[in-house]
Amino acid sequence: MIKPTPLQTLLGRLSLRVKLMLGYAVVFTLTVLLGGAGVYYSAERALSASLDSTLRETASVAQASIDQEDGRATFKSELKPSGDLSIELLGASGQVLSRVGDAEDGAGRPFPVTLGFSTENARRVLTLRTNGVYLRVSRPTDTLSGFLETLAQLLLIGSVFMIAVSCGAGYWLANRALKPVDAVARTAESIAARGDYAERVPQAPGTDEMARLTRTVNLMLDGLAGTIEREKDFARTAAHELRTPLTVLRGRLDLALERPREAAEYHKALLGMVGRVEALTALTEGLLALARTDAPAQLEDVELAGIAAGMAEGCEDLAHGCGKHIRLDLEPSWVCAEGEGVERAIRNLLENALKYGAGDEVVLKVAAHGLQVTSGGPGPDPAQWPRLLQPFERGAGVQGVSGSGLGLALVSALARRWDAELVPDWSGETFSVALVFPLKATPVPGPSGEQPADLSALTVPSQTRS
To answer: What's the domain count of the chain?
Structure first.
């Protein structure tokens, strides 16, 4: 495990608002400092260029005012430089031959001769060679330095003020932006503390990220509340359904243990309990299978015809017990589902048709991307079909038939798990239930290379669906 640095430890203790504010402040500080440096540098360049331009113009005028008297270079009397400008004529060794304008301190000493622009003793100097002498034009830089110093102070004060304002504005913006997050956190804490899943996060206005966050959280809470209520209802109903066979089983045990009995009587009593235990086992397995439908689906290519034939063979004993037989109409069909789940779905549909259907025949048909189980009789009331897809719900008039009411509910849950569709059809004197799987982009051929048959073979008239 990598040990955090001291900086990471410090930042980890700060709130998100402070971190965002510091981020704003750092970015704004860098921007202001770079901007201030750019302004200062641009002002210095502009003022220096202006000063050099003044010196260059003055030198041009002074060159035209140089006069030779008795072999000695001097300035004409008309040359009168303005302000603090100083103009000198220098000899080859730097001694002053003539001067007009503002005199420099220590003017009696020779000046160094450096052609072009230079800065000497807080003065800006331009030195040119003309007519065998050197023309030197200079001006003090104290005005320029004073202006730049004042500008630097103003930029510094303004930068500090703007950085302070940016910190306050950054914290205000961060606080305003994170208010919906606080609402989400408070709601989550309240739900965790009180278990009130009806509470919702206040919806943030607009369509920005926070609005999407609050809307998504509320949708999640809606789904969570619905799931929890369904689980509560399922648990209550399951407890009720389990209580009846357990009560009967306990009663038979008490009756068997009420007084000493012969071995034959104990054997008879135990045989009577076996049926109850088998019913409890079937109910428990159904509940477990229904609970597993909430897990992520592990889809694979499944061949329906082979599974259907195996399930029909496994239901032959039940069919004989009900005085019926199962007729198969199978075509190669590959779907994307789960093999074990498909087996359970087919078995449940066949058992329902054998137990509750009329006539002496149940037809199991497999065609492209689906299967269909058809039995005689009118079937359940179409208005009651949605209710029959709920756990432990059974149709009217079938209370005398053994069953737990989990068959159709489990098939419906498996269909949703595979993005398939469970379609009932009431056609005159028959009732059928089709499990139609979604079309695949590329049909998977059967073992012998044949292609699945047309999906229309399982199409149910739309006006008969509910």
So the answer is: 3
CA 398, distance to chain mean position in Å, is 49
Q: What tokens does 7 get? A: 């900086």
57-to-54, 89, 104, 124, 426 alpha-carbon distances in Å: 5, 16, 20, 14, 108
**CATH (domain of 243):** 1.10.287
Q: How far is CA 250 from CA 47, 243, 268, 269, 274, in A?
A: 106, 10, 16, 12, 13
Question: What is the reported pTM?
Answer: 0.51
Domain assignment of residue 6, yes or no: no
Are residues 252 and 324 located together in one domain of the fold? no
Return the CATH number at 431.
Answer: 3.30.565.10
Same domain? 413 vs 364 = yes
The reply to whether 374 falls in a domain is yes
Residue 208 has pLDDT above 50, yes or no: yes
Q: Is residue 417 part of a domain?
A: yes
CA distance 133 to 89: 7
* Interval 233-246: pLDDT, tens: 777 767 766 777 78
Contact partners, residue 255, CB within 8 Å, separation at least 6: 269
Could you give the CA distance from residue 93 to residue 111 in angstroms, rounded to a whole number? 8
Task: Render pLDDT for 312-352 as a digit per residue (tens, 0 to 9).
Answer: 999 999 899 889 999 999 999 999 999 989 999 999 999 88
Q: Are 34 and 162 in contact (CB under 8 A)?
A: no
What is the helix (H) or strand (E) element at residue 410, kind and residue range? Answer: helix 407-417
Report how far residue 102's alpha carbon sits from residue 82's, in angstroms, rounded to the nearest whole number. 9
State whether 242 and 360 are in the same domain. Answer: no
